[in-house]
Amino acid sequence: MTTFTNSRQAGHSMVELVVVAALLGVLVYAVSTLSVSGAESQEYARRVSRATEVSHDLIDQMRTDLVSSVRTFGNNTEGNENLDVLDLAGAPVPLSGLRLPTLATGESLRPDTSSSEITGNSLFFTKLAWSDRFVCSSANEYYIDVYRWVYYYLTPEDGGPVAGRPIGLNIVRIESEPLVDAAAIDRITDLADQREVLIHLSTATPDADGDSHPRCEVVWRRGELPSVIGTFRQIDEASWTLSDSPIDPRQDPWQVERSVDLVTGLLSFRHHSVATNFARANFGVGRYGIMDTTGAGFPHGFEVQVVGPASARQAVLHLVVSSTNRRGQWAWNGVQVVVDTHDQ
Fold first, then answer.
1. pLDDT confidence bin for 257, thresholds 50/70/90
2. What are the φ and ψ backbone dihedral angles of 284, each rounded to 5 degrees?
3. Coil, strand, or helix at residue 82?
4. pLDDT digits (tens, 9 = 90+) for 36-75
5. What phi and psi values does residue 289 have, to the nearest 5 degrees?
6. Contact 154, 274 (CB under 8 A)
């Protein structure tokens, strides 16, 4: 008996092939989407980790500086006048409208109110650079403290703060030339001894412990206003005495010079920015200061409060850093530290 095979049952219809192809396409799309999503998640996690690392590095540097602080400058006559004589020539331009914190003697950490604002967005203080022990030929021994001013401030970068994006600010650290403690120099009543000490400081000879330090030119009376004669005095190498007026080529009127180190933004090579006022609310910008988006804005992602009496101050630093990577979600991290400090 002859058997006939139906050719339509030997393969698949066109409709079936189209359905199978469509299903395969959906599966391929789903798998590839999951793969891309996973890769993007890993990249975002990496950027968040890096933002965390960068913000902690910066705040640790500030904390290390503040541990050696002997005087914190606030938003008052003393603080602003001293800041005016700090030489910023050649350094990144400060963001306009920067504000030092108010020294809130009877306050504790708190958000600002419209009638009582204590938050600043810059940090300016004096730190102990080193203590010098020197023995004169008379066998008299003297201890001389030497200070440096340190200033942290915001500078606009990459177009500055712009509505709609959280980046556009760098943070700069300025360190001044060494400043010799005037009180220690003035306590040396023996003029021959004082002359030897001034020569030692100006020529940077090793101290009694064998340690060498940078040369010093300026003697500074801590706590006085720059406008007061004698607040700054220069070591006159012609007579090895102290001059109330700057000696050429030093600028007149007085300016406290920067350290010779090249000054750049601390985030310049880290591909990050201090977060601006235009970051999303969950970034936590403006936790303490009252946010102002007019002009250059205030406070952005760097907030400073200095609270408590002079003998037991606390400096509160709040920093929010954002990655400058514009792909996907903005990666950011906020960190806060309280540093115990005091004014001498």
1. very high
2. 85, 20
3. helix
4. 466 778 888 899 999 999 999 999 999 999 999 999 999 9
5. -80, 155
6. yes
Tell me which residue of 142, 133, 107, 123 sits closest to 308, measured CA to CA: 107
In angstroms, the CA 123 to CA 72 distance is 8
**Which distant-in-sequence residues (6+ apart) come within 8 Å of 250 by Cβ?**
217, 234, 257
Q: Is the dihedral of CA 77, 80, 84, 85 positive or negative?
A: positive
pTM of the predicted protein model = 0.88
Give the Cα separation of 89 and 292 in Å (integer).
28
- Let me know how many helices (H) and strands (E) the chain has, helices first: 4, 13
Q: Are 272 and 321 in contact (CB under 8 A)?
A: yes
d(CA 318, CA 139): 49
> Does residue 123 contact residue 317 with C-beta atoms inside 8 Å?
yes
In a domain, 230, yes or no: yes
**Residue 22 domain flag:** no
Look at residue 328 in the predicted model and tell me its pLDDT: 79
Cβ pair 83, 338 in contact under 8 A: no
In which domain, by residue range, is 135 found?
Answer: 34-341
What is the rounded CA–CA span in Å between residue 266 and residue 87? 19
Amino acid type, 83: L
In a domain, 291, yes or no: yes
128 in Cβ contact with 101 (< 8 Å)? no
Local confidence band at 28 (pLDDT 50, 70, 90 cut-offs): low
Among the listed residues 11, 32, 8, the one whose alpha carbon sits nearest the alpha carbon of residue 20: 11
- Provide the number of structural domains found in the chain: 1
Higher-confidence residue of 342 and 200: namely 200
